[in-house]
Amino acid sequence: MIAILNAYRFRARLPINRAARVLVGLTAALLLALGWSAASGALGISPWGLLSGQADPLSVQVWWQLRLPRLLLGVAVGAMLAGSGAAMQGLFRNPLADPTLLGLASGAGLFVAVWIVLFQDSGAGSLYGQFAAGFLGALCVCLIVFGIAKRQGGGSAAVMTLLLAGLAINTLAGAGGGVLAFIASDEQLRQLSLWGMGTLTNALWRTTALALVLIAIALWLLMRSARELDLLQLGESTAHAAGLDAARLKRRVVVATSLGVGLCVALTGVIGFLGLLVPHCLRLWLGPGHRLLLPASMLGGALLLVVADTLARTVAAPAEIPVGLLTSLLGGPYFLYLLMRRNRAC
Amino acid sequence: MLTLHQAGLTAVPAIAPLDGTIRPGELLAIVGPNGAGKSTLLSMLSGFRPAEQGELRLDGTPLPDWPIAELANRRALVAQQELPGFDWQTDELLSLGSNPAKSLVAALLDDLDLTHLAKRSVLSLSGGERQRVMIARGACQLLSRGSPTAKDGGLLLLDEPTSALDIGQQQRLMRQLRAWAEQHRMAIVCVLHDLNLASTYADRVWLLHQGQRIDHGLPNQVLNPATIAKIYAAELQLLEGSSHGKHLLALAP
Q1: Domain B2-251 is of which CATH architecture?
Q2: Which of A7, A272, A339, B122 has its CA at a distance of 20 to 30 angstroms from the CA of residue B69?
Q3: Vertex B235: Cα angle to B231 and B237 (nearest 5)
Q4: What pLDDT, in 10s, does the model give residues A326-338?
Q5: What is the ipTM of this complex?
């Protein structure tokens, strides 16, 4: 792919810089992973068979109704988690920041757990309900965090307050989850713990289609913030003098992140380490500029989640490992290794 | 040109209302004891903390009326050192917030003796080197984005630009600031702790104490031993007879 582009550049004299090469490379890798993932699973389905119409009806049914929405959801959730991780790290100017830090994920998680334990019936609306609960949870946390931040005004104290508010919300949500687990029935408890480990099995067209649209909007909002996130790295007062409206940037990034992450949590539970790990690794490779880091993180997150999910559903097929467990098992040790190896921030 | 008309801040930390004009081509030093409100005043001059009384006008237009992006073409701020969280390369950091020509970046790196560090990561630099990088970035913002209709080089606000520099670098920086002020008709405001640097290099001095500007004018007038000794609660002796006619103050043993 890169070779083709390079050849094209010499012929057409187009300025194709490093950023374009990186993004094209990551996109190509993602497409390859999608092709591999589409073909593998408990039921082996050849993409060529599908295209040529020779596959049996069951395979076609499985592919269109189960596997394709799952692939797309993997791409969207991976991109959203890693992209919002990169944006949050930029916003807090801290490589260890993450949407879970603000309490968005746990707030969404608490609302979903409340839904599962207290309101869920076995009716057809249950998935939408879970979906809406996560959405609402993230939105509530977002509004609380915002109310606190607004009272603080600008300045560096505001960032610290945001982090502390996130800590409090995480603790509160953890306690709430404990209470819910205590009163839940065995069946609900099993559902809660499976969902809590993070899995893409809930991918169905009726929820995935809406999620894709909303996540695309959130990703677009983050992409628009790239240049401003770069400026913010100068510190708030210096960045203001350099032309940054920090309040607007914060608003946009926090809203986009909470909507996107709330959605992801509602659909898939908590899939750990993508938001932390992917931007961190890519920053080591590409440098801290957000105009490249944000889209690269989105592609990288999508790639990683698609690969991890394919492994999760094939390694022990027909049984399935929750993909959140897999990403945490792979990502956690690597992240600790990075922390130990590097003696300076990022 | 920045003009102040009874501009002040009422919320703590407060600044008592003051008048003044900061003209293109001059180097103004703001001095005063710890907690006098120097950084707060600088923050007000930059518009980050908008004046709560009176008003500030830049080039005749009140500061709050400037679109934030256009204002960035006319004034830059270098706040006290904040560690950049991420691993920027020196020349990348210089270009943040503007889209400078390569030649401008090279010239500014050369001005502040940073050329050999251009490709280094800023996190690997010493405190003094990083401080010079941030100052170069501020100048880069003004010089690369200066609007074509502007007759002068804008307003550069520096908060303790020499705090991490050795004396040789202090001298080179202050001389360079004077050179920028003259060449580009830039108005430069420095918060300084070192009164002798203010005395040696500044055109004018504002002396701040407990949020009030208690004196302003030429360095030799404002920085007289009696006033300074009282305000800083320090025992001083005046060193006169230096070749350039500037008063220098030393601590009494």
Answers
A1: 3-Layer(aba) Sandwich (3.40)
A2: B122
A3: 110
A4: 888 877 787 777 6
A5: 0.86
